[in-house]
């Protein structure tokens, strides 16, 4: 316990020293550069330097956010406004970029924070190593260091408020040093935490910023959801139009012909009856496939677990499905999760060349968690096409190239509507692990 | 032969009743929901039940659940399950008790009246009638396995028909060969897959299905 406390206090002292250096060197320099750069805007130079300097400031603040998470388990979210997707070139683009940056409340908070960091932040941080160093110095004074420090000309040596002029007062200084060390043991971690609390207080986006971020996200996912469902409806319409509908028309025509032929040419009529029956069977097959694509029957009948099991049974690859769900989720989540798993499985079979696949489905801490792991060749990414696809490069990019990349980003968009997230770990050579998490309740 | 029928859509129920009556089946009851089906199966003791997977009131797999429960209460009660879609998962559950007397077919199979009636009779007699789609899915899953690779294309064809639950006579007629040729093929298949040989048609089907469903 005691050794532990000493170790954490010393660690906090080192952290405090590092933070103080960052604040006194980094923040001071950046603040000066920022002020100079902004002052230079009217004469033009600042327009070019400001974005660069603010970029450095952002990196500086980002590092402190990272340290806050690592050293004090304090999460300080960043809420910078995104830049327009297609920035304009030339001078106008530069000016626009510069003014956008300066109008961003998050950037303004960064600059304010530089000021706080180089003053209050630095003081709080430097206290942690300072208490220990000064305490140790007090012990040294008591041990005899007072002799060269205090002499007849300058009078006593003042250790804090103790005038040291002999062994007696030297011992007093030593006791005070011990007290300082005791305080350090007790307060060092709190000091570092206070520093980060200060960082958080200035950098954390206000309620307005949080709401703004949320609205941005909602707008984006709503667009995606509407796009997806519109595309789905278009696909269903086209499939019905070209498939079942056309077959029913053909059947109706055949029946008309049969009616006319049944007495004149019974043999021919019989032939047409067979054809009509064939058309109806084909129409049914097409409708069945279509239904499976809209909402698989097993999903409606049994829920996510058995629907994924049934899906796994259709795959040509050995697939283990492990489901631990104490109930069913809402139908929309169920459906999104099912199609996400389906897409991940398709990728594993088609693109990764997997020989075995594992699917794990659980519900914990208010989220549905799904992991799809395969032993394939890996290299899948969310954004673009997978490494394995580009490596094969056989020119048939229309099929394989568009597959895995757009598939995964499609899943991501689809899950986004439910505030769900997707993560892909897929080093070249495999294995690939696709994890999904969707916040939802079980019923 | 006495039948209990469960199908919630009036048009289909009506069509099935007419079809079965045309082939001299006696319809004891034609019901439209799960609870009614359970009651009819317990009280009327039919020779065979023809059941739609999806039934009210839950509109989930209520028909299948009722059929499975009835078979637990009366092992071997012949049940032919009809569905708009076939799933290996459901086929596996129906076959799990190893008692035979089960059928699982797509509703489309009703179009071919002779084949459908044949399937009902087979199930009523304690045999098996699995939809060709279920069997072809199973076969394609197992096609990379080494023992399966040793089968000739003809033997595969025979195996597919055996798995659907057809007798040697029916297979011979279908493939336009003699019954003796079919018997030879089946004994080859059983040898290559290392399955226990049995003269009983039904045991034979279940062995093949269990083999296909393994792993």
TrEMBL record, chain A:
Bias-annotated ranges (Low complexity): 383-401
Residues annotated as domain Histidine kinase/HSP90-like ATPase: 332-442
Top-level taxonomic group: Bacteria
Class of the enzyme per the UniProt entry, highest EC level: transferase
InterPro entries in the record: HATPase_C_sf, HATPase_dom, Put_sensor_dom, Sensor_HK_TwoCompSys, Sig_transdc_His_kin_sub3_dim/P
Residue ranges, annotated region (Disordered): 379-409
Entry keyword annotation includes Heme: no
Alphabetic keyword roster: ATP-binding, Kinase, Membrane, Nucleotide-binding, Phosphoprotein, Transferase, Transmembrane, Transmembrane helix, Two-component regulatory system
SUPFAM superfamilies, per database record: ATPase domain of HSP90 chaperone/DNA topoisomerase II/histidine kinase (SSF55874)
Transmembrane segments: 33-57, 118-147, 167-187
Catalysed reactions listed for this entry: ATP + protein L-histidine = ADP + protein N-phospho-L-histidine
Name by which UniProt lists this protein: histidine kinase
UniProtKB/TrEMBL annotation, chain B:
Record-level GO BP terms: phosphorelay signal transduction system; regulation of DNA-templated transcription
Domain HTH luxR-type: 144-214
Regions crossing the membrane: none
Native source species: Streptomyces jumonjinensis
Lineage summary: Bacteria, Bacillati, Actinomycetota, Actinomycetes, Kitasatosporales
Tree of life domain: Bacteria
Modified residue annotations for 4-aspartylphosphate: 52
Record InterPro entries: CheY-like_superfamily, NreC/VraR/RcsB-like_REC, Sig_transdc_resp-reg_C-effctor, Sig_transdc_resp-reg_receiver, Tscrpt_reg_LuxR_C, WalR-like
Protein known as: Response regulator transcription factor
Keywords from the named record: DNA-binding, Phosphoprotein, Transcription, Transcription regulation
Ranges of residues in domain Response regulatory: 2-122
SMART domains linked to this entry: HTH_LUXR, REC
Pfam families named in the record: GerE, Response_reg
PANTHER family named in the record: TRANSCRIPTIONAL REGULATORY PROTEIN NARL-RELATED, TWO-COMPONENT RESPONSE REGULATOR
Gene Ontology MF term list: DNA binding
């Amino acid at each position: 316990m005691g050794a532990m406390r000493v170790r954490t206090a010393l660690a906090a002292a080192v952290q405090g020293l590092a933070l103080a250096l960052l604040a006194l060197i980094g923040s001071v320099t950046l603040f000066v550069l920022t002020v100079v750069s902004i002052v230079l805007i009217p004469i033009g130079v600042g327009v070019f330097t400001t974005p660069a300097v603010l970029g450095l400031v952002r990196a500086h603040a980002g590092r402190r956010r990272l340290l806050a998470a690592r050293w004090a388990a304090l999460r300080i979210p960043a809420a910078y406004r995104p830049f327009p997707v297609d920035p304009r070139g030339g001078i106008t683009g530069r000016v626009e970029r510069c003014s956008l940056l300066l109008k961003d409340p998050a950037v303004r908070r960064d600059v304010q924070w530089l000021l706080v960091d180089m003053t209050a932040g630095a003081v709080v941080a430097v206290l942690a190593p300072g208490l220990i160093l000064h305490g140790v110095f007090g012990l040294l004074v008591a041990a005899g260091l007072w002799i060269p420090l205090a002499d007849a000309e300058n009078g006593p040596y003042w250790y804090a408020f103790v005038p040291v002029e002999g062994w007696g007062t030297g011992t007093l200084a030593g006791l005070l040093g011990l007290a300082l060390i005791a305080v350090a043991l007790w307060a060092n971690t709190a000091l570092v935490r206070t520093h980060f609390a200060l960082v958080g207080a200035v950098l954390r986006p206000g309620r307005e910023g949080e709401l703004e971020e949320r609205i941005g996200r909602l707008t984006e996912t709503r667009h995606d959801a509407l796009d997806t469902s519109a595309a789905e409806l278009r696909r269903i319409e086209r499939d019905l139009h070209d498939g079942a509908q056309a077959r029913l028309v053909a059947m109706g025509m055949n029946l008309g012909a049969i009616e006319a032929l049944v007495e004149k040419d019974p043999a021919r009529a019989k032939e047409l009856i067979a054809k009509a029956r064939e058309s109806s069977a084909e129409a049914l097959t097409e409708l069945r496939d279509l239904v499976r694509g809209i909402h698989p029957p097993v999903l409606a009948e049994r829920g996510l677990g058995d629907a994924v099991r049934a899906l796994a049974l259709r795959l040509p690859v050995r697939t283990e499905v492990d489901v631990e769900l104490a109930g069913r989720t809402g139908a929309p989540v169920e459906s999104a999760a099912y199609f996400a798993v389906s897409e991940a499985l398709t990728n594993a079979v088609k693109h990764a060349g997997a020989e075995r696949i594992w699917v794990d489905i659980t519900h914990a801490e208010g989220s549905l968690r799904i992991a799809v792991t395969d032993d394939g060749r890996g290299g899948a990414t969310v954004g673009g096409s997978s490494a394995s696809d580009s490596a094969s490069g056989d020119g048939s990019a229309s099929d394989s190239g568009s597959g895995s990349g757009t598939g995964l980003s499609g899943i991501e968009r689809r899950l986004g509507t439910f505030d769900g997230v997707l993560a892909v770990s897929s080093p070249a050579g495999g294995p690939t692990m696709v994890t999904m998490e969707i916040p939802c309740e079980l019923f | 032969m006495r039948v209990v029928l469960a199908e919630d859509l009036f048009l289909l129920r009506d069509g099935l009743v007419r079809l079965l009556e045309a082939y001299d089946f006696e319809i004891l009851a034609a019901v439209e929901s799960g609870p009614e089906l359970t009651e009819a199966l317990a009280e009327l003791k039919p020779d065979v039940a023809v059941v739609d997977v999806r039934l009210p009131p839950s509109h989930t797999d209520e028909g299948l659940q009722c059929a499975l429960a009835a078979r637990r209460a009366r092992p071997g009660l012949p049940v032919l399950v009809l569905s708009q879609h076939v799933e290996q998962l459901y086929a596996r559950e129906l076959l799990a008790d190893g008692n035979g007397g089960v059928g699982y077919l797509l509703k489309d199979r009703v179009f071919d009246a002779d084949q459908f009636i044949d399937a009902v009779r087979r199930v009523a007699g304690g045999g098996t009638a699995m939809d060709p789609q279920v069997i072809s899915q199973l076969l394609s899953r197992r096609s990379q396995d080494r023992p399966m690779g040793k089968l000739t294309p003809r033997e595969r064809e025979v195996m597919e028909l055996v798995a659907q639950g057809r007798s040697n006579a029916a297979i011979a007629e279908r493939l336009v060969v003699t019954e003796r040729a079919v018997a030879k093929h089946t004994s080859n298949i059983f040898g290559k897959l290392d399955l226990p040989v049995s003269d009983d048609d039904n045991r034979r089907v279940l062995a093949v299905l269990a083999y296909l469903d393994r792993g």
